[in-house]
């Protein structure tokens, strides 16, 4: 379990990235979503003891991120958002170096590396210097390192950004097989829904909503989204799409008028927080 | 201390850097070799012993300084440092792993200078042993300076510029390629801030080229400890 106690982060230069956040994350897999700059990475880095908060603290399984750094670092794995492998080294070498850093013996490291590389379909490329891997393969290599470590907690900051659909499914399968508790961030709403038992929605350095999918979309119950590509008076706008929310009963009528109809998804949570407050 | 990590980092990163990027090995030898050539020509061979010992020290110093590029790149660009922070290694292990990889990476250069010293009979067996010790200590102190630098940077762009300036200040200006007695005494002490200076003074003494200066051994060890402690502070293992 992760418990955040009034976490605040102000970066040097004055940027407020986390604003007095308190929460309890109790589920096995939690997905953090939110717009660019919402504070997701800042939260992940603070929880994984890479970055110090300005004030407040948090505990992971009862261990304090300020006082018990050393202990947390041993049972937690954290894959950075923009992590990239060392160009000169191969996937196999990355895993072996990383796993010895996790405290494994050489032979355990080799064994665990082999297993993870096979699981993520990287085995074929195990001896290719990372410079010569595609962007998605590099990303998968980081996920492989996280999975191979056999940690109790796994933090993944945008693990599937840039992955093709099949690779994404491989990563999802690997995440689902983990014994560990997982905290991940993603910009893919279907990924949040597919993987997590609980979704945390962040905006402006705060947790705006937290819960399972249905409870997050409670406010949209019985509604649909109606979209138009030309301006309509009183509707909201995102880019050059104009839209409004309506009762599901009115769907037919809107369709007849030539508008398109969308089911409510997590995206609507973003829209409501991003647009409705500004352009009601 | 996690010896397994230090060994695997040192071996894989050091050895495969030679195999997969041999141009860097040649590049790291080019400056000391040029100096060796110039000193040899200008002194008509009379300062060849200085040039060989100096080249040895200078090559080690240059290589250790260039690890600042890796350290900064790992932290700022690849985020590899972040990955290692959350593991069972300490910042000391991390730095020692990278230092060892630079030692492995320097083996071809060490071999070249060992051969030259042998051919020109610059070293006795005893002074050769001393040179190995001096070089290892210097690797730790100079790499520590690299980690301090890498930790202070906020933009990767600056690293190569600063490394080349530091290379000149720390590996060419000190009395590495010429007798330290050419310099006023106080200047030698100022230049001793660069680990290459005490290293060269010690070796010039042991090779019988100049009077021995035992105090320089104390300075070398003391500043190695100091730079290493500072590196642990500056490397930003936990970012603020
Ligand atoms: N090192 C830093 N120094 C100063 N400000 C920073 C730093 N890192 C992040 N910020 C700022 O903090 C805020 C939160 O950034 P963060 O990286 O946590 O967002 P995020 O939710 O992960 O975004 P994204 O979805 O784009 O990854 C942003 O306003 C960002 O500009
Ligand atoms: Mg982020």
Number of domains of chain B: 1
The best one-word shape of chain B is globular
Distance between the termini of chain A: 38 Å
Tell me what the CATH architecture of the largest domain in chain A is: 3-Layer(aba) Sandwich
How many strand segments of chain A?
14
**How does the major sheet of chain B shape up?**
none
Percent in strands of chain B? under 5%
Which pair has the most extensive contact? A-B, 40 and 29 residues
Low-confidence stretches of chain A: none
Ligands, ions, cofactors: adenosine-5'-triphosphate, magnesium ion
Category from helices, strands and their pairing of chain A: alpha/beta
CATH topology of the largest domain in chain A, anyone? Rossmann fold
- Biggest β-sheet of chain A, characterized? 6 strands, mixed
Strand order of the largest sheet of chain A: 6-7-8-3-9-10
**CATH superfamily annotation of the largest domain in chain A:** P-loop containing nucleotide triphosphate hydrolases
Structure notes:
The complex is a heterodimer of chains A (280) and B (240). Chain A has 280 residues and is α/β, with parallel strands linked by helices. Chain A has two domains: 2-213, Rossmann fold; 218-272, no CATH class. Helix content of chain A is 34%, strand content 28%. Chain A has helices at 40-47, 69-75, 91-101, 106-119, 135-148, 165-177, 189-195, 213-216, 251-256, 267-276; strands at residues 2-10, 16-25, 29-34, 55-60, 63-64, 76-79, 153-157, 181-185, 198-203, 206-211, 223-228, 236-238, 241-247, 260-262. In chain A, the strands form three sheets. Chain A has a six-stranded mixed sheet, with helices on both faces. Chain A has a four-stranded antiparallel sheet with strand order 2-1-4-5, covered by helices on one side. In chain A, strands 12-13-11-14 form a four-stranded antiparallel sheet. In chain A, β7 (153-157), α6 and β8 form a beta-alpha-beta unit. The longest helix of chain A has 14 residues, at 106-119. Chain A is globular. The relative contact order of chain A is 0.14. By secondary structure, chain B is mainly alpha-helical. Chain B has one domain. Chain B is 76% helix and 0% strand. Chain B has helices spanning 3-20, 22-42, 48-77, 80-85, 91-105, 107-119, 125-152, 158-171, 185-191, 196-206, 215-234. In chain B, α3 packs parallel to α7. The longest helix of chain B is centred in the N-terminal third of the chain and has 30 residues, at 48-77. The radius of gyration of chain B is 18 Å and the shape is globular. Chain B starts with a helix and ends in a 6-residue tail after the last helix. The mean pLDDT of chain B is 92. At the A-B interface, α2, β6 and α3 of A face α1 and α4 of B. Magnesium ion binds at residues 40-41, 81, 157 of chain A.
